[in-house]
């Protein structure tokens, strides 16, 4: 039982990253019908931006000009980095996708792959291949709850992820911008005729997705403080699986599927030899997808979408 | 018209490629350096490059390498293998067939050294890997040598050390199943441990794949298996994550590692979590004497940090190559013959005084030498703890 609960905690943390990254994928895919394969690398860029911002803030705090406790540095790092990374997302959209909006879908898909490679190798050229150690902003405190070990970082990661997912859900449901997004997902051709600025909305979609990826990147740095330029690739693929599994146009679906992915990986490794983890985990996911080809909350294209 | 000019270009290119190679190699000795300058373990590549360049400086200062009474200039051909097996093979093929190197030094990690060793052996070019401890790198390959001890040796050394030091009987292993070095060493450790403590005494034998960052599920299993010690023969980037996550899951027992921990990056990534831990390696910088100390001071003055074992072993590998070339008694100018001569000279080196210990080759590619057990001090330095000889 202790082992089960411990792995539940482990899975919640691991799933949080998949969920946050999957949300960005899902947004872009639902609204623009676009596979943004560069998204995993935007997660990486967000993590590095977070590294830069936090180092800057630490230097500022230690210089004595502004007194800042570490938790404030972390909060500011997350906010600043989300803000800065959203511009990276908008630039990617403007440079990589907008010119290709009417091009065949395959062209747009490989654009994402190319932008991903550019971001990875650009980072490599800029900072070199050396691993970066993400600063430990908050002291790790470990709580022993009758044999189940939980750290303050784990709690923070899960809470922040759920809050962000909930905020996005509310944004899409309750605001005029959200309504415009849902309309675009419903029918991309008619929406401009209603006076919705499609280009602005596309940029906004990318900005939100990238900001979430940045949040995931910083939380990742807090939990696994070793960053490298290629860390986003595998993460991107797996989060993409979660986005599709969640169903097109469903914020809730992407979040749930992200957590499901985390749970599957952790619990497969608990039951089976860990060597077979991804083999078994992704066979299970494949099986789920064959039973529900439109994902958990997705519906066939003709039906109403519920972003 | 167009085709004709194109043919002309090819003919010209052919001339440029073939004609000079005949006399260039007669004048200079080319030594290939196959190193992971980018990719997973760039720090290893950096140490390789710096040590090789320091060796070259010495040779240049002496006016070249004295072979058979003549001073011959030396040139290094440094290629990046991106820490990938396929790139290491590509780099090896390029330096052997195009650059026509006499000897290749590297690759370092077994993951690249094993496939690249196959290439070197097929082309009958001597190769010295400074750091690869997996037996397969040199096995049945007369042209492949190493400057370090072997995994099968490190396995029992560590199993004995843990048994003597802590009096433990139950061990757990966590390793990367997709990488030759950790996989090999995990198996040898398990074999040695079970020989000491009986079958089933390795109570958890868990794995992951390269690029994984979350080990919580495996570590939860290990923690609940009743293991008293965790052995993880991983590279520095994973060591940091494994050790930190283990502590966050409430693991309080020792974690022991192998020579792959011996990078300058281990402590900077891992921090306080790694203090007090033990690993086996090729040399310890703290407490070094003689030529070893000289090398450390010189390297530190030039590059600003204490050289890790890769740099020290690369230095020794270059020394072995130098000795072998000099032992041939002179170059014939025929690359094929010279490569054969260097190979047989390498296999007969006796009592070579390296900075990582004395080495003796007895016909094969593996030297006999000792290992060192190192403890990471409370200041994050690698401190000599004890020596372990075969």
In short:
Helices cover 71% and strands 4% of the residues of chain A. Chain A is mainly alpha-helical.
Can you characterise this structure?
The complex is a heterodimer of chains A (307) and B (390). Chain A has 307 residues and is mostly helical. Chain A contains ten helices and four strands, in the order ααααβββαααβααα. Chain A has a two-stranded antiparallel ribbon with strand order 1-4. Chain A has a two-stranded antiparallel ribbon with strand order 2-3. In chain A, a hairpin with a 2-residue loop joins strand 2 (142-145) and strand 3. Residues 302-306 of chain A have low confidence and may be disordered. By secondary structure, chain B is α/β, with parallel strands linked by helices. Chain B folds into two domains: 25-148 and 289-368, Rossmann fold (3-Layer(aba) Sandwich); 151-281, Response regulator (Rossmann fold). Chain B is built from twelve helices and 16 strands. In chain B, strands 9-8-10-11-12-15-16 form a seven-stranded mixed β-sheet, with helices on both faces. In chain B, strands 4-1-5-6-7 form a five-stranded parallel β-sheet, sandwiched between helices. Chain B is elongated and about 65 Å long. In chain B, 54% of the residues are buried. Classes of the chains: A mainly alpha (307), B alpha/beta (390).
């Amino acid at each position: 039982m202790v082992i089960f609960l411990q792995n539940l905690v482990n899975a919640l943390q691991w799933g949080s990253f998949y969920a946050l990254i999957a949300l960005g994928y899902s947004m872009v895919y639902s609204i623009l019908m676009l596979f943004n394969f560069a998204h995993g690398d935007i997660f990486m860029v967000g993590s590095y931006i977070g590294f830069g911002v936090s180092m800057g803030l630490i230097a500022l705090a230690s210089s004595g000009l502004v007194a800042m406790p570490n938790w404030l540095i972390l909060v500011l790092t997350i906010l600043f980095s989300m803000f800065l990374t959203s511009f990276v997302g908008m630039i990617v959209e403007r440079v990589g996708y907008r010119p290709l909006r009417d091009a065949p879908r395959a062209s747009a898909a490989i654009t994402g792959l190319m932008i991903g490679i550019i971001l990875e190798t650009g980072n490599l050229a800029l900072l070199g291949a050396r691993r970066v150690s993400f600063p430990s902003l908050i002291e790790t405190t470990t709580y022993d709850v009758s044999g189940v070990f939980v750290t303050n970082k784990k709690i923070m990661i899960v809470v922040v992820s759920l809050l962000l997912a909930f905020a996005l859900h509310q944004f899409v449901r309750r605001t005029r911008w959200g309504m415009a997004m849902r309309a675009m997902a419903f029918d991309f051709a008619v929406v401009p005729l209603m006076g919705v600025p499609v280009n602005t909305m596309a940029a906004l979609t990318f900005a939100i997705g990238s900001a979430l990826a940045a949040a995931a990147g910083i939380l990742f740095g807090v939990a696994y403080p070793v960053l490298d330029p290629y860390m986003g690739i595998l993460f991107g693929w797996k989060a993409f699986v979660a986005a599709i599994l969640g169903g097109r146009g469903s914020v809730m679906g992407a979040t749930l599927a992200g957590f499901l992915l985390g749970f599957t990986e952790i619990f497969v490794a608990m039951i089976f030899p860990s060597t077979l983890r991804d083999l078994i985990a992704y066979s299970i996911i494949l099986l789920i997808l064959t039973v529900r080809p439109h994902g958990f909350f997705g519906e066939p294209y003709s039906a109403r979408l519920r972003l | 018209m167009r085709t004709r000019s194109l043919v002309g270009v090819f003919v010209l290119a052919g001339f440029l490629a073939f004609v000079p190679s005949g006399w260039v190699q007669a004048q200079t000795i080319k030594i290939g350096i196959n190193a992971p300058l980018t990719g997973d373990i760039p720090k290893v590549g950096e140490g390789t490059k710096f040590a090789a360049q320091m060796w070259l400086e010495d040779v240049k200062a002496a006016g070249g390498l004295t072979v058979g009474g003549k001073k011959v200039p030396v040139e290094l051909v440094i290629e990046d293998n991106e820490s990938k097996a396929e790139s290491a093979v590509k780099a090896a093929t390029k330096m052997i067939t195009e650059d026509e190197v006499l000897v290749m030094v590297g690759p370092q990690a077994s993951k690249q050294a094993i496939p690249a060793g196959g290439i070197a052996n097929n082309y009958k070019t001597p190769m010295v890997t400074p750091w690869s401890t997996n037996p397969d790198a040199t096995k049945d390959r007369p042209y492949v040598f190493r400057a370090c001890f072997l995994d099968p040796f490190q396995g029992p050394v560590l199993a004995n050390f843990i048994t003597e030091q802590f009096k433990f009987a139950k061990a757990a292993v966590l390793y990367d199943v997709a990488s030759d070095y950790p996989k090999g060493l995990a198996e040898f450790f398990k074999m040695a441990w079970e020989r000491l403590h009986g079958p089933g005494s390795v109570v958890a034998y868990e794995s992951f794949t390269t690029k994984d960052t979350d080990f919580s599920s495996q570590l939860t299993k290990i923690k609940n298996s009743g293991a008293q010690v965790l052995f993880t023969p991983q590279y520095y980037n994973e060591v940091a994550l494994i050790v930190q996550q283990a502590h966050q899951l409430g693991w309080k027992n020792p974690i022991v590692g192998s020579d792959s921990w011996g990078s300058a990056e281990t402590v900077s990534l891992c921090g306080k979590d790694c203090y007090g831990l033990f690993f086996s390696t090729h040399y310890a910088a703290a407490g070094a004497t003689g030529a070893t100390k000289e090398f450390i001071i010189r390297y530190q003055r030039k590059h600003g940090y204490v050289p890790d074992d890769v740099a020290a072993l690369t230095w020794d590998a270059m020394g072995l190559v130098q000795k072998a070339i000099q032992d041939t008694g002179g170059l014939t100018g025929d690359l094929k013959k010279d490569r054969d001569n260097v190979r047989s000279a390498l296999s007969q080196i006796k009592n070579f005084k390296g900075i990582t210990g004395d080495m003796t080759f007895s016909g094969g590619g593996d030297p006999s030498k000792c290992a060192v057990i190192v403890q990471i001090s409370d200041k994050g330095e690698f401190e000599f703890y004890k020596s372990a000889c075969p």
